[in-house]
Specification:
It is a single chain. The protein has about 475 residues and is α+β, with helices and mostly antiparallel strands. It folds into 4 domains: about 90 residues, no CATH class; about 110 residues, ntegrin, alpha v. Chain A, domain 3 (Immunoglobulin-like), CATH 2.60.40; about 50 residues; about 130 residues, Immunoglobulin-like, CATH 2.60.40.1240. The protein contains 10 helices and 20 strands. The chain has a 5-stranded antiparallel beta sheet, with no helix packed on it. Strand 13 and strand 14 form a beta hairpin. It comes from Micromonospora arida. Keywords: Membrane, Signal, Transmembrane, Transmembrane helix.
Amino acid sequence: MPASTRHHRALAVFVHCLGILAAVPALPTAAPEAAAAPRPPAATPQPTAAAPRPPAEKPQPTAAAPRPPAATPAPAATRPPVAMVARVTEPTPPSAPPAMAPPTRAPASAPPQQVTVAVATESSPAPRYRIQVRNVSNSPLETTVRQELPPGASTTAISGGGRSTPAGGSATEVTWRLRLPAHSTTTLGTALAATAPGKPLTAPTCAFTSDGSRPYDCATATWQAAAAPAAEVTEAPPWRRYPVLLGGLAVLLLISAALVWVWRRRRGRRVTAAALSTGGGPEGGRGTVYPRPAAPSPVRRRRTPPVWMLVGAAVVVLAGVVGTAGWTATRQVAAIDTEKQPTSGAWVGTGVTGSLGVPLRESAFEFTVYRMTCGAPGTAGKTDGGGAAPANGRRCEATVGVRNVTGDHQPWHSELQRAYLPGGRWVSADESATRTANLGRDVFADPMAAGTRMVLPLVFTVDGRDPPQQLELRSGVFSAGVRVQMP
């Protein structure tokens, strides 16, 4: 057998096997339909057989009656194989084409809020904040409201029965325990001691469940003193700027050198003309005797600027150029922020750095860190689905507000949310601990819908006694992200 024939036969056998495998999944579904299919055709021949014999029905009523039962088993025995073969031979379209893209995940919808918080500042010489807590549910709720004060700030007045407690380090927080009736609004207020004029103070506020473990909602406000506007920094006049002074000096020297050269050239011409005019004619004025004896004319050398003038002008110009370049480079180098992270090149958007309670926007999300608390060292245990924590590890929980500012749903990932520790070390968000803090809800599983906002706890497992110094939050791998400095 030729080699080409063997290849063709092998290919035909392979294709035939593929056809059989493609038809096998249709057999189980075709069998019940084939068993049920003969029943309607079995009833249809009955009237057709009785229709041509109307006269014969009268003499043989008994013979016509038993025929239908005898005819019913015959189609049941012969028709199912035919129907089955027909269904097997018919091409069965696949349930899902291989080239079809898998369906995308639906964007996550934030759970309905039961309590909302709004914070506003008052126009006063000292910082004052007005907090409105509203229960939008149909049942009364117990809530714990916490307001984070700026580092070093102290309260002078607290309304609504709140109390001020230290929150670690130099930070202080004001806490209220409230019972909110259904569809009610409670107004709270705090007043702080006067600070330096022009210094903004941000005080984020969050409403938590009665045990203080899960946030309902958060809001923030920044108080700015209504003081006299700061004096505008005006630039020095042109005659007091070093580049202008150096350039003017160079131009003045060049003009002076040019004037000296022109004066010396004209003076030489005058001396020559005077020497020629003093010579008298022969014989005491008897006139000119022609032809005059030929006298060689003196060779005049072309006047050029002296070497010292050219060298001096070149030195002045070079000094001006070097001075201007050095002054410009010094200003540009002084304007570089050495503490700022790189935000160009492969990054999308511009990196933003802020403090606690300040909304920071990147390419897709607007992040606001309202609160950060850390447990005692050694209290970080094993969570569901997570690995073992370090021996001296502890959980640090950050209350973060995330808003999708784009027109499309956006995913985000736990690996891109980082907490930076002293010494440059960093850890990513603990996904299992974050799921536990959100009552089993995986906040990273589904993308965020366009325009939605979530307030949720992010948990970081750190080791050592030092809390995180900075949080880095971002929506994507190439996003510049935002950085929040911890107090």
